[in-house]
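Lab channel / #folding
Pinned by the channel admin:
"Please post every new chain as: sequence first, then the structure tokens as a reply. Keep commentary short and put observations after the output so the thread stays searchable."

First post following the new format, from NK:
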Amino acid sequence: MGMKSKKLHFLALVTLLVAIFMTTLSAVHAQENDSIPKETILSFDSTNMLKTLEANGLRLPSDYQKHKDIAKFFVSNYVPLLIEGKVNPYIASFNYEQSNQMMAEMARVLTKMNLLQAKTLLQYTLQNSTAIGSWSSSYLNYNCYAYSLGMVSGLQPGATSNTPFSMSLSISQMADVVLADLDVMGYWGYKTTTKPTSFPDQWFRVICIRKDNSNVDYHFMKTYDTLNAWAHKPGGTQPLRWNYSSPGTAIWTNEYVYMGTAYPGNVTYESQIYYIIYKGKNDPGIQPLKGQ
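Reply from TO:
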């Protein structure tokens, strides 16, 4: 065997040994992550916390893959709550389905890492709303958007009209997506930031939308008989009646009732409120302007 051939064999052997070493090191690193103390992960900044969860198999929903800043915010705010047992990840309390998926994924990974604590039973009384009726398992099937439109199956903004939707949209753009959905459903309407003082005619309905400032979730309310009474439904939980005559009286949260038990919110919706006034295209009374 020539000198050149020996060098090539030597380099190949070195390369193989390095690959085996790196594979072993990665396995050891993964094992260390699996047993990481909760004090350590809670001390991480949002970047390292997300990297640690991803190293242990966290699968990010598509919107969180595109917007890593939102993913970092989500893990830094909700991992501590999960570890401390202050939130139940198996209740769909978000309205944005990808946020519910994100919470469930984090719970799966933290369980694998032996960090997920049993849910702490909290004594809580709803602050800004009152439960409507009693619990029904059917509430699991639809969120605030479907509820605001009188539907009882899951619905995300943009799904009906095939309009792109993301939590990175502004609240005004979200209202436009809703109008596009309504158009496909056979309605016409318009948006405004001012709460209407009366219905334009008896056929009109009014809903309103707000989002949180960190792009985690959106929320809808709808009129409950009159413009001075409002109702909403946080995620897959029980419908609630708003305790005030105007949606703008207080900051919204996703406090909720699940199977007869009230839970504190883990999101605050602080954006500007957009009201959407709409009616059926074939309803009598006021008709849209030409071109509207």
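NK: Residues 129-280 form one domain.
TO: also worth noting, The helical segments are 3-34, 38-43, 46-55, 62-66, 68-83, 97-112, 144-148, 171-185.
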